[in-house]
């Protein structure tokens, strides 16, 4: 298990080092994109003195993430946003010391732009009051650590691009796992089918519907999939990152069907039990700390439970590594949809036990048809 995750080590000088997989390589604490926010040895977090070199950091950022801007005015605006996000990363590091926060591919976006382009839980949608609840499962024999990647039920990390379609990736990830359990085959399913064809509405609010790049809800997407007869392969209906096209669903090419789906109790032992028994789970989360997340176990002291991002829960660990001055922290393993160059190879580790950032608040399980 431990070998899957880049770990944070604390040297005898109390200098935090980190690993961040980027384009086949790793970044350590000497990388200027990370060094500006890590512990400097005396417990202090880098501050405004580091921002004096913000132009140099911005040049590295533009090169590393292939950023270019249409005009000098736009360039200057993005540089201003970048400096503001350096300060945000510093604040996040103070609030979330068991993780590492720094510069990511989102560091030239305002919080509003980040929400609009890369999140996508439709806030008007909510779980219907009559949503089917998952049955209570025994929890006394749960393994201490569990990861569906080790059991072949998780496809490679995908990238939603600048489209608020995270809900569709959460949906396909859960059904990919359920379909694997039902058929023994791991098949990558089509998010684009959901983006272009799924307009399922909240039964209690007919004006709240799954809306492509403008957001949606995983349970509504499961309902659509059940009614439509299933999802196609990703290769047969490839992802484009836009919702401007027309629906191209071909029922004859369906490869995964929903048998049923249900909402899991807020009890984290029940979440773990459903994960182990039923496969990866569709969950919603507050993503405010994810804009600056680099690695480690994220356990912020304060985090809103206002849900705005759909992700996939694939496993959990019993004791996530934290610097010596902090206790070890059990964590959930979250598959994200921002590509492998974000976070820990596309994954986010977040504390278990206190519903951090609302991660336990909206959890759904799905079962697939076995034939």
Automatic annotation (TrEMBL):
It holds the Pfam family Inhibitor_I29. SUPFAM superfamilies: Cysteine proteinases. Its EC number is 3.4.22.41. One of its GO terms (cellular component) is lytic vacuole. It comes from the Eukaryota. The keyword Hydrolase applies. GO terms for biological process: proteolysis. CDD domains: Peptidase_C1A. Transmembrane segments: none annotated. GO terms for molecular function: cysteine-type endopeptidase activity. Gene3D superfamilies: Cysteine proteinases. Residues 58-114 form the Cathepsin propeptide inhibitor domain. Keywords: Disulfide bond, Glycoprotein, Hydrolase, Protease, Signal, Thiol protease, Zymogen. Residues 1-21 form the signal peptide. Residues 142-367 form the Peptidase C1A papain C-terminal domain. Belongs to the peptidase C1 family. This is Cysteine protease rd19a. The lineage of its organism: Eukaryota, Viridiplantae, Streptophyta, Embryophyta, Tracheophyta. The gene is RD19A.
């Amino acid at each position: 298990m431990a070998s899957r995750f880049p770990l944070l080590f604390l040297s005898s000088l109390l200098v935090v080092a980190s690993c961040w997989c980027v384009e086949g390589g790793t970044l350590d604490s000497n990388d200027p994109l990370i060094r500006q926010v890590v512990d400097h040895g005396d417990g202090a977090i880098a501050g405004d003195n580091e921002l004096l070199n913000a132009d140099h950091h911005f040049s590295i950022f533009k090169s590393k993430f292939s950023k270019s801007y249409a005009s000098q005015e736009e360039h200057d605006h993005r540089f201003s946003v970048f400096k503001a996000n350096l300060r945000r990363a510093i604040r996040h590091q103070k609030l979330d010391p068991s993780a590492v926060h720094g510069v990511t591919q989102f560091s030239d976006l305002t919080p509003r732009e980040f929400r609009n382009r890369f999140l996508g839980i439709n806030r008007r949608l909510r779980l219907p009051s009559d949503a089917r609840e998952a049955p209570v499962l025994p929890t006394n024999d749960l393994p201490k650590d569990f990861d569906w990647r080790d059991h072949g039920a998780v496809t490679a990390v995908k990238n939603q691009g600048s489209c608020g379609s995270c809900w569709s990736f959460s949906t396909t990830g859960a059904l990919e796992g359920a379909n694997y359990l039902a058929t023994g085959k791991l098949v990558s399913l089509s998010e684009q089918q959901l983006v272009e064809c799924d307009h399922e509405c909240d039964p209690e609010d007919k004006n709240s519907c799954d809306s492509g790049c403008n957001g949606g809800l995983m349970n509504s997407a499961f309902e659509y999939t059940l009614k439509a007869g299933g999802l196609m392969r990703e290769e047969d209906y490839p992802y484009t990152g836009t919702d401007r096209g027309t629906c191209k669903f071909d029922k004859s090419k369906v490869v995964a069907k929903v048998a049923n789906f249900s909402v899991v109790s807020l009890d984290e032992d029940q979440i773990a039990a459903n994960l182990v028994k039923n496969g990866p789970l569709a969950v919603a989360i507050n993503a405010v700390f994810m804009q600056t997340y680099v690695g480690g176990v994220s356990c912020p002291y304060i985090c809103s439970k206002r849900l705005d991002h759909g992700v996939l829960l694939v496993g959990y660990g019993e004791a996530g590594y934290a610097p010596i001055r902090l206790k070890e922290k059990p964590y959930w393993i979250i598959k994200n949809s921002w590509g492998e160059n974000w976070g820990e190879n596309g994954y986010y580790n977040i504390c278990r036990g206190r519903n951090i950032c609302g991660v336990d608040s909206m959890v759904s399980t799905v079962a697939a048809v076995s034939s």
